[in-house]
Amino acid sequence: MTETDLRAAKQEILDYCLRSMEYGLNFNTQGNISVRLPEPDRFLITPTDLEYDRMTADDIVVVDANSNLIEGPHQPSSEVTVHMAVYRRRPDVQAIVHTEPVFANVWGVIGEPIEGALVNMVIYTKGAVPIMPFALSNRTEFGDAMCDVMGDLNAVVWANHGLLTVGPNLRDAFKTSVAVESAAQVLLHARSVTSKPIVLDYAGLGITESL
Ligand SMILES: [Zn+2]
């Protein structure tokens, strides 16, 4: 990867970080974004504890699959081991977005999966979004446990914490986060008037095309 391409990849991460705040998916220094680089065993990830509106592309750091800092002026996100567990388990995943949006978090607090309220969500997630029971996300065992819950889906809610989405590129991983939060909001409204809202079963939709 050329220096120019690396710089563009860092800028793209920063752009989506800022967009996550604009869309109300994150507050303070919450959330993190990473991408898999074309070089073997190299990933870009946001640094720990730095506000997005104070971040520049130069603050995004390079790590290896063991979460070691390879290059950059900061330590990686405290949830770097979660990202690396996903890249290890899911070779199809090229980008990961972790946010802490309100409505997805409501379902995590209730402890119920986010059912397929909207077709836009299930196309991206490939099914109802499961809930990973609460555990501290900076512990190394969290990543594997979360991957077990997420399986082949593209999203998982961390109870009492937030949302993680994955994709074949950063744009799709981010769009999945937005789609989940939107469906989570609609489903909550629907459940306030009926205990049995109409929801979609992804497998029954016969969608074969990938993102
Ligand atoms: Zn978090």
Automatic annotation (TrEMBL):
Key words, A-Z: Lyase, Metal-binding
Signal peptide limits: none
Xref: InterPro entries: Aldolase_class_II_sugar_metab, Aldolase_II/adducin_N, Aldolase_II/adducin_N_sf
Class II aldolase/adducin N-terminal domain ranges (all copies): 11-188
Pfam families found in the cross-reference section: Aldolase_II (PF00596)
Protein name per its UniProtKB record: Class II aldolase/adducin family protein
Source organism per UniProt: Spongisporangium articulatum
